[in-house]
């Protein structure tokens, strides 16, 4: 009977260790999921900031073009027309 008791005791020990490992993995998994959600949120925020900065940059470039002196007005009109054409192309690509 002692052989059976030893086997049962060994199985109980192994089961306890396995349960302990499973709990540790579950805890780690939960922590990683939380970290992943935080990183996704941070990424989304940074993407929005990047987009805002890009829009501000484009507006600044356009403002620089508009600030040109009267002599450069013709060139400014050409540049604005070029920008408008690029925007129209982008819109047409988005509509496809």
Secondary structure layout plus pairing:
Layout: H1 2-66, H2 73-95
Keywords:
96 residues; mainly alpha; 92% helix
Count of folded domains:
1
List the uncertain runs. Answer: none
Average of pLDDT: 88
User: What's the helix count?
Assistant: 2
Shape label? rod-shaped
Roughly how many Å is the radius of gyration? 32 Å
**Overall SS class:** mainly alpha
Give a count of the beta strands, DSSP E runs of length 2 or more: 0
Strand content: under 5%
Task: Outline the biggest β-sheet.
Answer: none
Helix content: over 70%
What is the chain-wise order of helices and strands? Answer: HH
Distance between the termini: 78 Å
Protein architecture, described:
- The chain is mostly helical.
- It has one domain.
- It has 2 helices and no strands.
- The radius of gyration is 32 Å and the shape is rod-shaped.
- The relative contact order is 0.04.
- The mean pLDDT is 88.
